[in-house]
Specification:
Length: 236
Amino acid sequence: MASTLKLLVFDLDGTLIDSSVDLCNSVNATLEHLGKPTLPPAVIASYIGDGASMLVRRALGDPEGDIHDEQYVTEALTFFLNYYRVHKLDFTTVYPGVIEAIETIRAASPNLLMAVLTNKPVNPSRDICAHFGLNRFFFQNYGGNSFHTKKPDPHGLKTLIAEASTLAGETITAAQTLMIGDSDVDILTARNCGARSLGCTFGLAPHTLAAAQPDALADSPAAWPKAIASLMHPPA
């Protein structure tokens, strides 16, 4: 049927991996470097999801980009990225059941293409996926600095759909694409593209999912295969 899924696009942080400790430690190391008070991990975790620059700005108390000393922000961001590059795998783990779930999905639908679209900078994203052996599942991994825009802008997702169509040798539509993520950013990315969405309630920002209204929910990676099967073959 025309609505059968042909492309899965996964968010990274809070969906495939739990990176919260390393991100929080890197933010607090940045604040210490700048002589500013550190923040509770729960506060920093609430800032994750819109890319490194916004994470740092929020930690500096500048969520709207009102700090006019861009050199100061650039120094903070540079320190954060350099620190995180070294420490990105200190405590980061793949969520339990992720690899098994993706293997189950792949076994059930061998031709289903998969990719990663994250707002994390692309090099750490690719390095982390390679470290944990996740990269073998994905034909592409794009980050927040891969394009001129970030999620929830649909440009990255549209690019992946076009690339998947080339690989498949047929046109894959947005309606045949599923975005899987733990926050409203991912759900809105799908909606802005005309794709479907699966919200992960176990991630870093599940409190944002209700308002975004994903097409389906999963309480754990183990629930992905069933949720995806139901979206691939909806009831008549």
